[in-house]
Amino acid sequence: RNSKLARMPGQDGSGSRGLPDWTESEHLTGTSIMAVEYDGGVVIGADSRTTTGSYIANRVTDKLTKIADNVYCCRSGSAADTQAVADMVSYHLDFHSVQTGGPPLVETAANVFREICYSNRDSLSAGIICAGYDARKGGQVYSIPLGGMCVRQPFSIGGSGSTFVYGHVDKTYKEGMTKEECIEFTKTTLALAMARDGSSGGVIRIACIDATGVERQVFKGKEVPTFWEK
Q: Is the pLDDT of residue 28 over 90?
């Protein structure tokens, strides 16, 4: 008589249930995100696809997260980790604004991101772009990649889709671009990343942050550029 336990249908020898990978995978904002400085503000943008393994869990995710009235972040990595970090930074900046009596500096927000991401670098999967406007330094873009480094850049790209567009942004970016040029630059870069990267897709969300506030736009369907096909 065979003393081994009979395997149930759908089970393998490892004890897993033989189900598709997305049933046990983490939600990931496997992603294309971007931010660009211009004289007087910043333009930020992102795709809208959230994946769980190979399954698209959400095709209209908003990855442009408000931290303060004048500061936003773009999130890539684990959806749970980046949402938790963004909530923590927003919480700290609310107290900071009460103490200072005014809106937080973008640099302050970026450094709070840096502190949290660096202190928990072994357990977090979070790549953040922090961008916004303040009266002291104008429009600013800070990149906080995996590991918790923080560096200011004239433009920044991130997420899995960014690996496909480094050549495009290096060729296209130029100093002194206008707000409209930055919007077009962001839109075309994200569209190219979404076309090449299977973990990026959906719609393109863009926000312009300046002294007057935040202006948001969404590009979907035929509004998404396909310039590389011409």
A: no
Cβ atoms of 215 and 207 within 8 Å: the answer is: yes
Please report the beta strands in the chain, taking only residues with DSSP state E, as ranges in sequence order. 27-29, 33-38, 41-46, 50-52, 55-58, 64-68, 71-78, 126-134, 138-144, 151-152, 155-158, 204-210, 213-219
Is the full-model pTM beyond 0.90? Answer: no
Contact call for residues 158 and 75 (beta carbons, < 8 A): no
User: In the prediction, which pLDDT does 52 show?
Assistant: 82
Reported as a pLDDT band with limits 50, 70 and 90, residue 47 is: very high
Asked whether 134 and 103 are in contact (CB, 8 A), the reply is yes
CA 99 to each of CA 32, 70, 82, 105: distance values in angstroms, whole numbers, following the listed order:
35, 17, 26, 13
Give the pLDDT confidence score for residue 2 in this predicted structure. Answer: 46
Bridge partners of residue 27, in order along the sequence: 52
- Report residue 116 as tokens: 């949290």
Provide the pairing of β-strand 71-78 with 27-29.
antiparallel
Residue numbers annotated as active site: 31
Q: What are the percentages of helix, strand and coil residues in the chain, rounded to 5?
A: 35, 30, 35
Contacts of 38 by beta carbon, 8 Å cutoff, 6+ apart: 139, 177, 178, 179, 181, 182
* Residue 104: count of CB within 10 angstroms of its CB: 23
Q: Is the Cα torsion angle 217, 221, 223, 227 positive or negative in sign?
A: positive
Q: What single letter denotes the amino acid at residue 72? A: Y
Q: Give yes or no for a contact between 158 and 63, defined as CB atoms under 8 angstroms apart.
A: no
Q: What does each C-alpha distance from 220 to 47, 202, 203, 217 come to in angstroms?
A: 10, 7, 5, 10
